[in-house]
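Troubleshooting log. The previous structure file for this entry was overwritten by mistake, so regenerating from the original sequence record. Sequence copied from the archived sheet and checked twice against the printout by T.R.
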Amino acid sequence: MKNAHVKRVLAGLAITVVPALAHAQWWNSDLPPGRRMANVPGVKIVYDAKLQKRATDEIAKTLAAGDIAKLDRMHDEFADMAHAGGEGRDMIAAFGDALENHYRGRSVPDEALFQKWRAEAPGSRLRSATEAAMWWSFAWQARGGGYASEVSPESMNRFGEFLGRAARALEDGQGRESPLWYWMALSVGGSLGAPAAAMDQIFDAGARKYPTFMRLYETRLNFLLPQWGGDYGRVDAFVRAAVHRTQATEGTAFYPALYAKVARTWDGESFFGETRASWRLMQHGFEEQAARATVDLNQYATFACLARDRETTALLLRRLGDKANIGLEVPAVTNESCLELVKEGR
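Regenerated output below.
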Protein backbone atom coordinates (compact mmCIF):
# COMPACT_ATOMS: atom_id res chain seq x y z
CA MET A 1 0.00 0.00 0.00
CA LYS A 2 2.75 2.42 0.97
CA ASN A 3 4.68 1.88 -2.28
CA ALA A 4 1.52 2.26 -4.34
CA HIS A 5 0.88 5.66 -2.78
CA VAL A 6 4.44 6.77 -3.46
CA LYS A 7 4.29 5.62 -7.09
CA ARG A 8 1.04 7.47 -7.70
CA VAL A 9 2.46 10.62 -6.14
CA LEU A 10 5.40 10.42 -8.55
CA ALA A 11 3.25 10.02 -11.64
CA GLY A 12 2.79 12.84 -14.13
CA LEU A 13 5.20 15.43 -12.82
CA ALA A 14 5.18 17.71 -15.88
CA ILE A 15 3.57 21.10 -15.23
CA THR A 16 2.75 24.20 -17.19
CA VAL A 17 2.74 27.62 -15.57
CA VAL A 18 1.88 30.79 -17.46
CA PRO A 19 3.01 33.83 -15.48
CA ALA A 20 0.37 36.52 -15.10
CA LEU A 21 2.01 38.86 -12.66
CA ALA A 22 -0.14 41.47 -10.98
CA HIS A 23 2.38 43.11 -8.63
CA ALA A 24 -0.48 44.42 -6.51
CA GLN A 25 -1.67 44.05 -2.96
CA TRP A 26 -5.37 43.64 -3.70
CA TRP A 27 -5.37 40.91 -1.01
CA ASN A 28 -3.93 43.09 1.78
CA SER A 29 -6.85 44.08 4.01
CA ASP A 30 -4.50 46.24 6.12
CA LEU A 31 -4.33 48.76 3.26
CA PRO A 32 -7.07 51.16 2.14
CA PRO A 33 -8.60 50.05 -1.19
CA GLY A 34 -6.88 52.79 -3.18
CA ARG A 35 -3.43 51.54 -2.20
CA ARG A 36 -4.01 47.89 -3.00
CA MET A 37 -3.76 48.11 -6.77
CA ALA A 38 -0.70 48.03 -9.01
CA ASN A 39 0.94 51.15 -10.41
CA VAL A 40 -0.20 53.57 -7.69
CA PRO A 41 1.77 56.80 -8.28
CA GLY A 42 4.60 57.15 -5.80
CA VAL A 43 4.06 53.71 -4.28
CA LYS A 44 6.48 50.85 -4.88
CA ILE A 45 5.76 47.42 -3.51
CA VAL A 46 8.72 46.15 -1.50
CA TYR A 47 8.71 42.36 -1.35
CA ASP A 48 10.47 41.97 1.98
CA ALA A 49 10.07 39.78 5.06
CA LYS A 50 7.51 42.19 6.50
CA LEU A 51 5.23 41.92 3.47
CA GLN A 52 5.67 38.14 3.41
CA LYS A 53 4.60 37.97 7.06
CA ARG A 54 1.59 40.15 6.24
CA ALA A 55 0.67 37.73 3.45
CA THR A 56 1.03 34.77 5.82
CA ASP A 57 -1.43 36.37 8.23
CA GLU A 58 -3.86 37.16 5.41
CA ILE A 59 -3.71 33.59 4.09
CA ALA A 60 -4.37 32.19 7.57
CA LYS A 61 -7.36 34.49 8.02
CA THR A 62 -8.70 33.65 4.55
CA LEU A 63 -8.27 29.91 5.11
CA ALA A 64 -10.10 30.13 8.42
CA ALA A 65 -12.93 31.98 6.66
CA GLY A 66 -13.07 29.36 3.89
CA ASP A 67 -12.74 31.98 1.13
CA ILE A 68 -11.67 29.62 -1.63
CA ALA A 69 -11.64 32.19 -4.44
CA LYS A 70 -9.30 34.52 -2.59
CA LEU A 71 -6.97 31.68 -1.58
CA ASP A 72 -6.71 30.45 -5.16
CA ARG A 73 -6.13 33.93 -6.55
CA MET A 74 -3.42 34.76 -3.99
CA HIS A 75 -1.75 31.42 -4.58
CA ASP A 76 -1.77 31.72 -8.36
CA GLU A 77 -0.19 35.17 -8.30
CA PHE A 78 2.49 34.14 -5.81
CA ALA A 79 3.19 30.87 -7.64
CA ASP A 80 3.53 32.67 -10.96
CA MET A 81 5.95 35.17 -9.42
CA ALA A 82 7.97 32.26 -8.02
CA HIS A 83 8.08 30.66 -11.46
CA ALA A 84 9.09 33.89 -13.21
CA GLY A 85 11.77 34.89 -10.68
CA GLY A 86 12.64 38.46 -9.84
CA GLU A 87 10.64 40.61 -7.44
CA GLY A 88 8.09 38.77 -5.40
CA ARG A 89 9.51 35.33 -6.15
CA ASP A 90 9.65 34.43 -2.44
CA MET A 91 6.06 35.42 -1.63
CA ILE A 92 4.91 31.82 -2.18
CA ALA A 93 6.71 30.96 1.07
CA ALA A 94 3.88 32.74 2.88
CA PHE A 95 1.61 29.83 1.96
CA GLY A 96 3.99 27.29 3.45
CA ASP A 97 4.15 29.23 6.72
CA ALA A 98 0.38 29.74 6.82
CA LEU A 99 -0.46 26.07 6.17
CA GLU A 100 1.93 24.84 8.84
CA ASN A 101 0.60 27.32 11.39
CA HIS A 102 -3.06 26.74 10.53
CA TYR A 103 -3.04 22.95 10.96
CA ARG A 104 -0.59 22.69 13.86
CA GLY A 105 -2.40 21.41 16.93
CA ARG A 106 -5.73 20.80 15.20
CA SER A 107 -7.49 17.48 15.74
CA VAL A 108 -10.60 17.69 13.53
CA PRO A 109 -10.14 17.58 9.73
CA ASP A 110 -12.00 20.17 7.69
CA GLU A 111 -13.26 17.74 5.08
CA ALA A 112 -16.31 19.88 4.27
CA LEU A 113 -14.05 22.68 3.06
CA PHE A 114 -12.26 20.41 0.62
CA GLN A 115 -15.50 18.90 -0.68
CA LYS A 116 -16.71 22.43 -1.37
CA TRP A 117 -13.36 23.34 -2.94
CA ARG A 118 -13.53 20.39 -5.36
CA ALA A 119 -17.04 21.35 -6.40
CA GLU A 120 -16.48 25.09 -6.78
CA ALA A 121 -12.92 25.16 -8.14
CA PRO A 122 -12.03 21.82 -9.76
CA GLY A 123 -9.06 23.46 -11.52
CA SER A 124 -7.51 24.80 -8.30
CA ARG A 125 -3.72 24.62 -8.21
CA LEU A 126 -3.70 25.03 -4.42
CA ARG A 127 -6.29 22.63 -3.04
CA SER A 128 -4.42 19.32 -3.22
CA ALA A 129 -1.33 20.68 -1.45
CA THR A 130 -3.50 22.29 1.23
CA GLU A 131 -5.42 19.08 1.87
CA ALA A 132 -2.18 17.09 1.92
CA ALA A 133 -0.71 19.57 4.43
CA MET A 134 -3.71 19.00 6.70
CA TRP A 135 -3.40 15.20 6.67
CA TRP A 136 0.40 15.34 6.96
CA SER A 137 0.06 17.52 10.06
CA PHE A 138 -2.49 15.13 11.57
CA ALA A 139 -0.15 12.20 10.82
CA TRP A 140 2.72 13.68 12.81
CA GLN A 141 0.45 14.72 15.65
CA ALA A 142 -0.80 11.13 15.86
CA ARG A 143 2.72 9.71 15.78
CA GLY A 144 4.42 12.21 18.08
CA GLY A 145 8.17 12.56 18.37
CA GLY A 146 10.79 10.03 19.34
CA TYR A 147 12.09 6.92 17.64
CA ALA A 148 9.70 4.56 15.86
CA SER A 149 10.37 1.91 18.53
CA GLU A 150 8.97 4.30 21.14
CA VAL A 151 5.66 4.88 19.32
CA SER A 152 2.67 2.65 20.06
CA PRO A 153 1.34 0.40 17.27
CA GLU A 154 -1.97 2.28 17.38
CA SER A 155 -0.23 5.63 16.85
CA MET A 156 1.88 4.21 14.03
CA ASN A 157 -1.25 2.87 12.35
CA ARG A 158 -2.90 6.29 12.49
CA PHE A 159 0.33 7.83 11.24
CA GLY A 160 0.25 5.57 8.18
CA GLU A 161 -3.48 6.11 7.65
CA PHE A 162 -3.18 9.91 7.64
CA LEU A 163 -0.10 9.85 5.41
CA GLY A 164 -2.04 7.67 2.99
CA ARG A 165 -4.80 10.27 2.89
CA ALA A 166 -2.20 12.98 2.28
CA ALA A 167 -0.76 10.97 -0.61
CA ARG A 168 -4.21 10.52 -2.14
CA ALA A 169 -4.86 14.26 -1.86
CA LEU A 170 -1.69 14.89 -3.88
CA GLU A 171 -2.95 12.60 -6.62
CA ASP A 172 -6.16 14.60 -6.95
CA GLY A 173 -6.67 17.71 -9.09
CA GLN A 174 -4.27 20.22 -10.64
CA GLY A 175 -1.84 20.40 -7.71
CA ARG A 176 1.29 19.68 -9.75
CA GLU A 177 1.02 23.24 -11.06
CA SER A 178 2.04 24.58 -7.64
CA PRO A 179 5.44 24.71 -5.93
CA LEU A 180 3.58 23.72 -2.75
CA TRP A 181 2.70 20.38 -4.32
CA TYR A 182 6.39 19.46 -4.63
CA TRP A 183 7.05 20.56 -1.06
CA MET A 184 4.23 18.39 0.25
CA ALA A 185 5.13 15.48 -2.05
CA LEU A 186 8.63 15.50 -0.51
CA SER A 187 7.20 15.80 3.01
CA VAL A 188 4.76 12.94 2.53
CA GLY A 189 7.11 10.77 0.49
CA GLY A 190 9.92 11.15 3.00
CA SER A 191 7.59 10.36 5.90
CA LEU A 192 6.43 7.23 4.08
CA GLY A 193 10.02 6.13 3.56
CA ALA A 194 10.16 6.69 -0.20
CA PRO A 195 13.43 5.59 -1.87
CA ALA A 196 16.11 8.25 -2.38
CA ALA A 197 15.72 8.05 -6.16
CA ALA A 198 12.01 8.82 -5.91
CA MET A 199 12.66 11.74 -3.57
CA ASP A 200 15.31 13.10 -5.91
CA GLN A 201 12.89 12.84 -8.85
CA ILE A 202 10.28 14.91 -7.01
CA PHE A 203 12.87 17.46 -5.89
CA ASP A 204 14.44 17.87 -9.33
CA ALA A 205 11.07 18.34 -11.01
CA GLY A 206 10.08 21.03 -8.52
CA ALA A 207 13.44 22.80 -8.44
CA ARG A 208 13.58 23.05 -12.23
CA LYS A 209 10.37 25.09 -12.17
CA TYR A 210 10.91 26.90 -8.86
CA PRO A 211 14.69 27.05 -8.35
CA THR A 212 14.62 29.46 -5.40
CA PHE A 213 11.72 27.97 -3.41
CA MET A 214 13.62 27.28 -0.20
CA ARG A 215 11.14 24.80 1.27
CA LEU A 216 11.92 22.33 -1.53
CA TYR A 217 15.57 22.37 -0.57
CA GLU A 218 15.00 22.29 3.18
CA THR A 219 12.58 19.38 2.93
CA ARG A 220 14.79 17.25 0.67
CA LEU A 221 17.76 18.10 2.90
CA ASN A 222 15.85 16.99 6.00
CA PHE A 223 15.64 13.42 4.72
CA LEU A 224 19.42 13.33 4.07
CA LEU A 225 20.26 14.03 7.72
CA PRO A 226 21.64 11.30 9.99
CA GLN A 227 18.34 11.25 11.91
CA TRP A 228 16.70 9.90 8.74
CA GLY A 229 19.43 7.41 7.89
CA GLY A 230 21.58 9.83 5.87
CA ASP A 231 24.96 11.33 6.67
CA TYR A 232 26.75 14.67 6.56
CA GLY A 233 28.61 13.76 3.39
CA ARG A 234 25.33 13.47 1.49
CA VAL A 235 24.12 16.65 3.16
CA ASP A 236 27.18 18.59 2.01
CA ALA A 237 26.92 17.26 -1.55
CA PHE A 238 23.30 18.37 -1.65
CA VAL A 239 24.08 21.85 -0.28
CA ARG A 240 26.87 22.39 -2.79
CA ALA A 241 24.64 21.22 -5.66
CA ALA A 242 21.93 23.62 -4.46
CA VAL A 243 24.40 26.52 -4.52
CA HIS A 244 25.47 25.55 -8.03
CA ARG A 245 21.82 25.41 -9.16
CA THR A 246 20.98 28.85 -7.75
CA GLN A 247 24.28 30.71 -8.09
CA ALA A 248 23.26 32.74 -11.14
CA THR A 249 20.65 34.63 -9.13
CA GLU A 250 21.50 33.93 -5.47
CA GLY A 251 25.28 33.81 -5.43
CA THR A 252 26.30 31.54 -2.55
CA ALA A 253 23.48 32.66 -0.22
CA PHE A 254 21.94 29.17 -0.22
CA TYR A 255 25.04 27.77 1.50
CA PRO A 256 24.46 29.38 4.93
CA ALA A 257 20.68 29.21 4.51
CA LEU A 258 20.72 25.42 4.13
CA TYR A 259 23.37 24.81 6.77
CA ALA A 260 21.17 26.79 9.16
CA LYS A 261 18.60 24.02 8.62
CA VAL A 262 21.27 21.44 9.48
CA ALA A 263 22.25 23.32 12.64
CA ARG A 264 18.68 23.29 13.95
CA THR A 265 18.84 19.48 14.20
CA TRP A 266 22.52 19.12 15.13
CA ASP A 267 23.34 18.08 18.69
CA GLY A 268 27.07 17.72 19.08
CA GLU A 269 30.27 19.33 20.29
CA SER A 270 31.79 20.90 17.16
CA PHE A 271 29.48 21.92 14.31
CA PHE A 272 32.24 22.61 11.80
CA GLY A 273 34.18 19.54 12.92
CA GLU A 274 31.32 17.05 12.90
CA THR A 275 29.48 18.20 9.77
CA ARG A 276 31.10 19.01 6.43
CA ALA A 277 30.22 22.71 6.69
CA SER A 278 32.93 25.21 5.70
CA TRP A 279 33.06 28.45 7.67
CA ARG A 280 34.85 30.14 4.77
CA LEU A 281 32.01 29.32 2.37
CA MET A 282 29.37 30.09 4.96
CA GLN A 283 30.86 33.50 5.72
CA HIS A 284 31.05 34.28 2.01
CA GLY A 285 27.35 33.46 1.71
CA PHE A 286 26.47 35.63 4.68
CA GLU A 287 28.40 38.53 3.18
CA GLU A 288 26.50 38.12 -0.10
CA GLN A 289 23.25 38.16 1.86
CA ALA A 290 24.44 41.33 3.61
CA ALA A 291 25.17 42.99 0.26
CA ARG A 292 21.53 42.31 -0.71
CA ALA A 293 20.22 43.48 2.69
CA THR A 294 18.75 40.02 3.37
CA VAL A 295 21.16 38.81 6.06
CA ASP A 296 20.01 37.79 9.53
CA LEU A 297 22.80 39.21 11.68
CA ASN A 298 21.90 37.03 14.65
CA GLN A 299 22.19 33.94 12.48
CA TYR A 300 25.50 35.21 11.05
CA ALA A 301 26.80 35.81 14.58
CA THR A 302 25.63 32.36 15.71
CA PHE A 303 27.76 30.64 13.09
CA ALA A 304 30.71 32.98 13.60
CA CYS A 305 30.61 31.96 17.26
CA LEU A 306 30.29 28.26 16.39
CA ALA A 307 33.35 28.67 14.14
CA ARG A 308 35.15 30.41 17.03
CA ASP A 309 35.85 33.36 14.75
CA ARG A 310 36.38 35.93 17.51
CA GLU A 311 36.94 38.91 15.22
CA THR A 312 33.74 38.40 13.24
CA THR A 313 31.74 37.53 16.34
CA ALA A 314 32.90 40.73 18.07
CA LEU A 315 32.09 42.85 15.01
CA LEU A 316 28.59 41.39 14.73
CA LEU A 317 27.90 41.75 18.44
CA ARG A 318 28.78 45.44 18.18
CA ARG A 319 26.47 45.86 15.19
CA LEU A 320 23.62 44.03 16.95
CA GLY A 321 23.93 45.85 20.24
CA ASP A 322 20.88 45.24 22.42
CA LYS A 323 19.22 43.35 19.53
CA ALA A 324 21.63 40.45 19.92
CA ASN A 325 19.80 37.14 20.19
CA ILE A 326 22.51 34.67 19.32
CA GLY A 327 21.81 30.97 19.23
CA LEU A 328 18.38 31.00 17.59
CA GLU A 329 17.57 27.29 17.54
CA VAL A 330 21.14 26.12 18.27
CA PRO A 331 21.16 25.50 22.03
CA ALA A 332 24.96 25.20 22.24
CA VAL A 333 25.30 28.95 21.48
CA THR A 334 24.06 31.91 23.56
CA ASN A 335 24.79 35.61 23.86
CA GLU A 336 26.79 34.85 27.01
CA SER A 337 28.91 32.07 25.50
CA CYS A 338 29.77 34.23 22.49
CA LEU A 339 30.67 37.21 24.71
CA GLU A 340 33.01 34.90 26.60
CA LEU A 341 34.57 33.82 23.30
CA VAL A 342 35.24 37.45 22.40
CA LYS A 343 36.75 38.16 25.84
CA GLU A 344 39.12 35.20 25.47
CA GLY A 345 40.72 36.88 22.48
CA ARG A 346 41.47 40.15 24.24
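The mean pLDDT is 89. Archived copy saved in two places this time.
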